[in-house]
Each structure stands twice: as C-alpha cells, then as structure tokens.
C-alpha cells in the first residue's frame, strides 16, 4: 500500500532518475487527484505489494478501492491513457477497436450464453500485487446489472458471474477470486467488464484463455520519452 509522498521532491519527480527530470510537471500529471498524487509521490521501494491473502480479503469484504498500482506504474498508466485520449479520442475507443477488436457491441444472446460475447484479456495496468498473482479482465458485450442505489452488482448478476467464473477457471486454477468494480471506480464505463485474480496459474492455461494476449504495460516501453 502507498505511504505519504516524499517531502523533499514534487510528486512528479519521484521515481524518475535525476538526469531524466522534466523541467515542469508533465501534462498527463497536472490534473491528478490528491490520491494519485500521494501514490505517484511515493518511492517504489516504500510501496507494500499486496500478498495473495490480502487480495483475497480485499475482495471478500468488497473494498476494491484498496487496490492501487505501483507508483511508477500509475505514472506510466496516466501517461499512456493521456496518449490514448489524444490519439483515439477516448479510452473506450481504444479498448473496443484495438484491444477487443469488436466490430459490433450487440450481444448475440443472454449473459454468458455465447462465447462470442465475451473476451478475456490481461489487465493492461495491474495493481501492486504479488508477481505470482495474474490479473485478468473479462469483457462482455452484455450488461451485468447493478443496483441503481448502491452501484454494486445485484444478487442475480453476482450469481451469473460466479457461475461463469467457476465453470471457466475452477477446473484449471486452485486459487482465484473475482470482483466487479463499483461504478465510482471504473476507468472504462462504456464497456462492461469484471476482474479475475488467479494465483500461480499455469502459463499454457493463460495463453489459451487469453488467446495469447500481452498486456499493454509490456508493450508500452518503460524508457519511452514523456510527452509534455
């Protein structure tokens, strides 16, 4: 979990080698929330990575707001999404056209009835978790109903997801957990999705279930020059 930001440096210089310091705060960090400033302003080595037991507990008590990215990864995430908005107009356009490659968002049938209405990919920018934990996102063309008052999944929707997760992952992975973000926490609102965490899954199963997917964090070079 993040600690207080480093007091001796502006948050936007933390975790950046001195010879790469920008002269001013980059555009992609200028509208950060106080929460993100606190995380980005924390040294990576002072960040406590979540264990599998902690991940399971966060999911169990439905406090998914406790999931955070490693400070340097959150910085890269904000840089990447800033770039996406400039190039594609919105994060949603990029997700649908480049990641999902769905020409139509119209589902073929009821929730989880057709495989064509579902795609499982890596979380492009996973949280600060034990490296043995693999974070996947299940994207769907169909809606998964939320309670309008609370923003949380309805009991019926939770049951549908649970049945799908058990059928898809339980035969292949011993330890796993799933959650659906609260509406207030979703970074992509227009495309339905939920998250699945797998503990020590086999590589061949991951390759098959994701159809050989590679997370964007692996593609977006760590030494890429920061845009201003």
UniProtKB/TrEMBL annotation:
GO cellular component terms attached to this protein's record: cytoplasm
Membrane-spanning ranges: none
Tree of life domain: Eukaryota
InterPro entries for this protein: DUF3605
Coiled coil, from the record: none
Biological process per Gene Ontology, one example term: N-acetylglucosamine metabolic process
Protein name, UniProt field: N-acetylglucosamine-induced protein 1
Organism of this sequence: Clathrospora elynae
């Amino acid at each position: 979990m993040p600690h207080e930001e480093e007091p001796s440096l502006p948050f936007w210089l933390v975790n950046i080698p001195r010879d790469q310091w920008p002269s001013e705060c980059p555009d992609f960090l200028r509208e950060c929330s106080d929460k993100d400033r606190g995380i980005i302003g924390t040294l990576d080595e002072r960040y406590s990575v979540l264990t599998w037991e902690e991940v399971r507990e966060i999911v169990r008590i439905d406090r998914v707001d406790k999931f955070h990215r490693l400070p340097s990864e959150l910085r890269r995430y904000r840089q990447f999404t800033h770039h996406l908005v400039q190039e594609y107009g919105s994060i949603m356009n990029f997700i649908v056209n480049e990641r999902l490659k769905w020409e139509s968002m119209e589902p073929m049938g009821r929730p989880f009835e057709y495989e064509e209405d579902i795609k499982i990919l890596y979380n492009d920018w996973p949280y600060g978790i034990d490296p043995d934990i693999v974070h996947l996102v299940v994207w769907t063309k169909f809606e998964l109903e939320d309670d309008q008052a609370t923003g949380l999944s309805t009991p019926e929707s939770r049951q549908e997801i649970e049945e799908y997760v058990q059928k898809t992952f339980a035969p292949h992975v011993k330890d796993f957990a799933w959650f659906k973000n609260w509406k207030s926490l979703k970074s992509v609102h227009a495309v339905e999705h939920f998250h699945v965490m797998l503990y020590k899954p086999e590589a061949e199963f991951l390759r098959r279930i994701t159809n050989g997917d590679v997370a964007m964090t692996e593609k977006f070079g760590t030494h890429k020059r920061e845009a201003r």
